[in-house]
Design a protein that fits this description.
297 residues, Arginase, Chain A, 8 strands, Agmatinase-rel, manganese
């Protein structure tokens, strides 16, 4: 049985569903990883590491808005069994007007979250931090592979913006081009930096951010199944997230594909810090404070 864990542990009194702005949803699903395994252990490792974080993130205390950690999703079975359970938990969060924070697990879990969001929000886009495009129609015999998640989202006519991508098939390259999917590839960041980044003016006002941990450079984040050299640095990532939060209403986010390494606890801490920092940028954003009725922080 999975031990009872709360994001930030004893430093934060476990908030009730109605009281907390952020609902952390651990979804340890792992069925289609195609290289190294371990993502099923990601949520627990992130929650354990979160107990070592400072409540003050350097600007404010995001935990003051309340963090509720739901029980772990039962991820036994195939995608057809598990994804509806994830979708239901995200829908429960949305029904009380809170922000879902999903901890994967492999990237496939994002599809379930997006389905629930689409039932709640008329229009939103998905911003994907990722080394890979994940736009394959099928992979290794299944349309539910972690390599297909963004194709499934695109099939639902949801706009996508990709950041940090640097590994994709020729077919995915052609698909991006044919469908005019906007992106900021890792090579673009290397050449031009992130300071001038802004989303397309016609990108939806509401966004869900999906953060595949392999979007980070493997020197910073080796604990993932399919690391690719040339990824984002820590402060490039923070800059980009802050810019997004300041320009769009964030209706939820996830951190996926984290596969903890027993000998490298710094990776678990990094994943937990990333999760908490995303909460922080949201609480400090004027557009999000207004939408979510957040007082002065």
């Amino acid at each position: 049985m999975t031990p009872t864990l709360y994001f930030h542990g004893d430093d934060v009194k476990p908030s009730g569903q109605q009281d907390a702005l952020f609902h952390v949803i651990p979804a340890p699903y792992e069925k289609t990883v195609s290289y190294k395994s371990g993502t099923a252990l990601g949520p627990q490792a992130i929650l354990e590491a979160s107990c070592q974080l400072e409540l003050f993130d350097g600007k404010n205390i995001p935990a003051d808005q309340g963090i509720y950690t739901s029980p772990f999703i039962d991820c036994t079975g195939d995608a057809e069994d598990v994804l509806p359970r994830i979708r239901k938990e995200v829908a429960n969060c949305l029904s009380v007007n809170k922000i879902p924070v999903i901890l994967g697990g492999e990237h496939t879990v994002t599809g379930a979250a997006v389905e629930a969001l689409q039932e709640c929000h008329n229009s939103f886009g998905v911003i994907q931090f990722d080394a890979h495009a994940d736009l394959r129609d099928t992979y290794q015999g299944t349309p539910y592979s972690h390599a297909c998640v963004m194709k499934r989202i695109h099939d639902r006519n949801i706009p996508i913006f990709q950041i940090g991508t640097r590994s994709y098939s020729y077919e995915e390259h052609l698909f991006r081009k044919k469908n005019s999917i906007p992106y900021l590839d890792a090579e673009d960041i290397f050449k031009s930096g992130v300071e001038g980044f802004c989303l397309p003016v016609d990108f939806p006002d509401k966004v869900f951010i999906t953060f595949d941990i392999d979007g980070l450079d493997p020197a910073l984040m080796p604990a993932t199944g399919t690391p690719v050299p040339g990824g984002l640095t820590w402060y490039q990532t923070q800059w980009l997230i802050e810019k997004i939060m300041n320009s769009r209403i964030c209706v939820g986010f996830d951190v996926v594909e984290f596969a903890p390494l027993n000998t490298l606890h710094s990776a678990s801490f990094t994943a937990a810090q990333l999760t908490y920092n995303m909460m922080g940028y949201l609480t400090r954003s004027a557009v999000n404070r207004k939408y979510w009725s957040i007082g002065t922080v």
